[in-house]
């Protein structure tokens, strides 16, 4: 019986503490003493404080002469010529492996056409 009375006493004290401090939420306020609305309000305030990180787009690459052909819709011979001349700065080649940075290649091609 004394356990039940002790528990009821703790609940009553907690209710009084919540009623007294409902508008005084501090860093020491236990989460268990917050209402759902107060918790959501606090979370929303913290979310608004954090700066929105800009998403950086991942670089796109095409591989080999086939990638250059499909990127520019040209023949094999024209893709070879583009690789060696117009988009040379966007091409990285190690042995037989060819990797082309799409954004840089399109920019170089655009600048070459405008001249």
- Major β-sheet annotation: 3 strands, antiparallel
Helix-strand string: HHEHHEEH
Shape: rod-shaped
Distance between the termini: 94 Å
Tell me the Rg in angstroms. 33 Å
Query: What is the number of beta strands?
Result: 3
Q: How much is the average pLDDT?
A: 78
Question: Strands across the major sheet, in which order?
Answer: 1-3-2
In helices, the fraction of residues equals 55-70%
Secondary-structure-based class equals mainly alpha
Strand portion, in percent?
Answer: 5-15%
Q: Which oligomeric state applies?
A: single chain
Number of helical regions: 5
Low-confidence stretches: 1-9, 17-22
Describe the structure concisely.
The chain is 56% helix and 10% strand.
Kindly describe this structure.
The termini are far apart. The protein contains five helices and three strands. 6% of the residues are buried. α3 packs across α4. With 115 residues, it is mainly alpha-helical.
List the helices and strands and how they pair.
Blueprint: H1 2-20, H2 36-49, E1 61-63, H3 64-72, H4 76-84, E2 91-94, E3 97-101, H5 102-114
Antiparallel strand pairs: 1-3, 2-3
